[in-house]
Amino acid sequence: MVRLHKRIAAETGEHKVQLYDSTRRRWGAELDWSEIELERDAYVLQVYPVSQLPSTPAGKSDLVESWFATGTIDADERRIMLELPDVEAYGGLRNAVYDLTCMQLEQMLFDGKQAHVDPTQGPAMPIRLGKLYLCAALRDGCPEERLNMVRKYLDEAVMMADAQKPPAPPPMPPMPGAGAPPPMPGPDAMQPSMSMQGAA
Asked: What per-residue confidence (pLDDT) applies to 76?
């Protein structure tokens, strides 16, 4: 990749790319490859596995059983996956709501295009991730119009969550025979009667 960028810079006279910080999800300074002098032994390339999911049928079955034991999947999902244990495809489906929500939020913050919460998506994930993305965007100085897109998206999710709340139960009727409490005795009732005083 280094040699390719150097060759493009040599052929075109100028080849600039903008650095992107994937940890903080923000763009940084521009880098002009025509000005870069990087020796081949000045960097190290390390390779890591993309997926740690088991590849054997027995390993996949064990993983399905562990998901069932921890409540990640229910009995029907366990039966289906043991018949055809494609755990990678199922894992992608389980993450679909998360992936869709991230895509919508990044569409608003990076591309400036308004996204909307889908009814099948539900409000929980958009509310949880929307708050995190919004705080990170505020920290990184994102333009106000894009912040407002995320706020509108959050408002949609909150309205959806409120609409899904069950109605408040009606007030309990009074118990049969239960009337108003007896009145408190007045000050005269607290005085002993004349007959009692004479008896004393």
From this structure: 73
The domain ranges of the chain are 2-42, 57-94, 96-164
Q: State the pLDDT confidence band at 29, using cuts at 50, 70 and 90.
A: confident
Q: What is the DSSP string of the chain?
A: -HHHHHHHHHHHS--EEEEEETTTTEEEEEEEGGG----GGG-------S--S--SHHHHHHHHHHHHHTTSS-HHHHHHHHHS--HHHHHHHHTHHHHHHHHHHHHHHHH-------TTT-SHHHHHHHHHHHHHHHHTT--HHHHHHHHHHHHHHHHHHHHHSPPPPPPPPPPTT--PPPPPP-TGGGSPPHHHHHH-
